[in-house]
């Protein structure tokens, strides 16, 4: 008799002998990713999303479709009314210094290369979430001195500095930081000094986002 393309037969083990030829697997097809949205909430560390949709559903036992939504950490420094957020509300959002090489190339290509600066901090507390994060999170250890670079696009007009760099803070004031993409990897540090000429060591080098 005719062979029907009902993929349930694979589960019940009663497929036609020529099922694979008559009913080849049709893979899932998804659209390209949309552009990233804005941050979910202003004036706090949160996330942005991008989405895609299913163009063709999988059939005949093909692999299921991949995730249709993706999130990334972000922080927005301006309120919905276009007012600048209070610095005390926002921790410094940092990522690994290795990310800066590609960022500098893109800035140069776009004509946006701006001279930046670095800030040295001493880590006072480091959350336990850093132990289970990415490899660079493990470089954040209590008592260590770290070097964080401020460069484009985190440094751009009208701001003469990167948010969270501790400019204007008192000498022993505890400032908050958070690793991008891992809200459990966060802690406090004290600002030591600003370096107008950056020479951050590769091991303890980070970037403001």
TrEMBL record:
InterPro entries: SBSPO, SBSPON_C, Somatomedin_B_dom, TSP1_rpt, TSP1_rpt_sf, TSP1_spondin_dom. Gene3D superfamilies: Thrombospondin type-1 (TSP1) repeat (2.20.100.10). Residues 1-28 form the SMB domain. The keyword Cytoplasm does not apply. It comes from the Eukaryota. Keywords: Disulfide bond, Glycoprotein, Signal. The keyword Translocase does not apply. It holds the Pfam family TSP1_spondin. Signal peptide: none annotated. This is SBSPO protein. It comes from Toxostoma redivivum. The lineage of its organism: Eukaryota, Metazoa, Chordata, Craniata, Vertebrata.
